[in-house]
Amino acid sequence: MSGWRPERVGDGIVARRIGWLSAYQFLNGCLDQVQAQDEGELWLLCDAQTRLSERIALAESTRRRT
Asked: What whole-number distance in Å separates Cα of residue 2 and Cα of residue 10?
């Protein structure tokens, strides 16, 4: 889970993003942390959030060009 720092909390796992997000990424649904019950679920959530933040960053850069 590159870009995420996992930590066991109670019965689950919380992963916090290592890098930063822009205000535009936060505004459009990117999270700086996710919570799951097991490692498989956590991997999927982190992967989904990483992909989302990359796509939102692309939209942000396109927005700046116009």
From this structure: 23
pLDDT band at 66 (very low <50, low <70, confident <90, very high): low
**b/e burial code for range 27-40 (CB count within 10 A of at least 16 → b):** ebebbeebebeeee
Domain boundaries defined on the chain? 4-59
Give the DSSP per-residue string, 2-38: TTEEEEEETTEEEEEESS---HHHHHTT--SEEEESS
The predicted model scores a pTM of 0.89
The residue written with tokens 């989302």 in the block is 52
